[in-house]
Each structure stands twice: as C-alpha cells, then as structure tokens.
Write a structure and sequence with these properties.
This protein is mostly helical. It has one domain. A two-stranded antiparallel sheet has the order 1-2. Helix 4 runs parallel beside helix 7 and helix 7 crosses helix 8. This is ABC transporter permease.
C-alpha cells in the first residue's frame, strides 16, 4: 500500500497538478479580497476558501482517475500493483490530502490578508451572527469543508466509474456541490411527513458546511451536528465502496 501511494504521489507531483491547484486557489482568494468590500462574513468564509477548494478538488478528483484510462496507463498500474484496492485508495487519499493542504494553506492566507488588509477593524474575538467568535466561525467553516471533502471526493470517484466522461462528472459534481442542499430542502418541504427519512438523503449532508458554524441551520437539515457528521461519514463509506466495486469491475 505504501509503495503504491509513493508511486501515485510521484505521478501526481510530476504532472504539476499541485502547482496548478495552488495557483488557482491563490488567484481566486485574491479576487474575492479585492473585488468587493471586506466584511466579517467574507473573513468568516476565508475569502471564499471553501467554495474555491471544492471547485479545484471536484475537477481534480475526476481527472486524476479518468486520465489513467485516457492515457492507457491503467494496465501498467494493475501490473505494478498487487491490488486494485491499493490503486483506488491511494488516489483517494492523495486527493484528500491535497484538499486538506489547500484548506490549511488557504487558512494561512486568510489570516495574512486579515492582518495586512483589514487590520484591527474586525477583531478575531468579535461575536459573529450571535453564535461564535469570528476566528471560531472561520475554523468551524474549515472543519465543515474538510469533512465535506471526504464526501465529495468519494462521490466524484464513484461518478467517474459510472459515467466515464470527465467533463460530465465535473459538471455533476459542481451541480451537486452548489445546489444539492437546495434540492434536498425542496424534497423535504414537499414531503414533510417523510422528513424523518428524507433528512438522511446524501444531498442533505452538504449542509455540514454551513451548519457547524451556524447552529440555527439545524432547522434546515433537521439533523444535529453529531447526526450530520455521522451521515457524512456513512455516505462517504458507501460512495467509496461502490466506487471501488465499479472500478474493479470496469474493463480496461
């Protein structure tokens, strides 16, 4: 397993994927900084850190797996590795690790931008939206996005094994990531008597991004923080298992 991870990590780095992702995140965060007035909300959201990381990781997740088939290198990978599960999980953990790296780097940039541009105008200790301090809200946003990364990467890996078209998976991933919770809310509103079942649908788990820093969002998801975290972990494992099964059965 460790050998497979090293091989995949070398390939990941050799293709300059990390460099492109970092550059994209920096540019997008700087655009969010200078294109509008800076408010506590923008700081609490890390200058768009979560949504920018999500965009990058959705694109990367499907591309990193699908390119093996496009470049006809998948057979070589199967020959060199003793297990298909090692290949699949290695790619998964590399993408997850890179996503966490982007979040941490974005956090450092957020703190730098706050100190250099905003200064003392908004204190880290100020209470944001009557819930937590500004710094705590930022960190909870980061944790929510970090947990959601596990969910989203496993979903994208599963989708690329089903659809097999990179562009389609990127489109589906972005649609799910940005309007999935709204669709879930529509379903739960349309069938209120069945909300005890519908609240566990995977689209509802997207609310973890906003719910951890904003306790009032429990009314939207109808799940406690612990329940939604458990739901995210459960769905992640389901998508990961299904994705691997499809990957293993896919002809090369």
């Amino acid at each position: 397993m460790i050998t497979t991870i090293k091989q995949e990590l070398f390939k990941f780095w050799h293709q300059r994927i990390p460099l492109y992702g970092v550059m994209a995140l920096l540019l997008l965060m700087l655009e969010a900084t200078f294109s509008r007035p800076i408010t506590p909300r923008i700081i609490a959201q890390g200058f768009g850190l979560g949504q920018w990381t999500l965009l990058i990781i959705i694109t990367l997740s499907s591309t990193f797996l699908s390119m093996e088939y496009k470049n006809n290198t998948i057979c070589t990978m199967f020959y060199k590795s003793s297990s298909k599960s090692y290949i699949y999980l290695s790619k998964y953990f590399i993408v997850i690790g890179y996503g966490v790296f982007l979040l941490l780097m974005g956090l450092a940039l957020t703190i730098f931008l706050k100190i250099t541009i905003v200064g003392d105008k908004y204190s880290w200790n100020m209470i944001y939206q009557n819930h937590h301090s500004l710094l705590t809200t930022l960190l909870l946003n980061l944790i929510g996005n970090g947990l959601y990364l596990f969910f989203m990467v496993s979903l994208c890996f599963m989708l690329i094994s089903i659809v097999k078209i990179n562009v389609a998976v990127i489109g589906l991933g972005m649609a799910i990531g940005f309007i999935g919770n709204s669709l879930s809310g529509i379903i739960m509103t349309a069938f209120p008597n069945m909300s005890f079942i519908w609240k566990w649908n995977p689209l509802n788990m997207i609310n973890i991004i906003n719910q951890l820093p904003k306790p009032n969002n429990i009314a939207i998801s109808q799940l406690s923080n612990l329940q939604i975290i458990i739901g995210v972990i459960f769905d992640t494992l389901i998508f990961l298992g299904l994705g691997y099964w499809l990957f293993k059965k896919r002809r090369v």
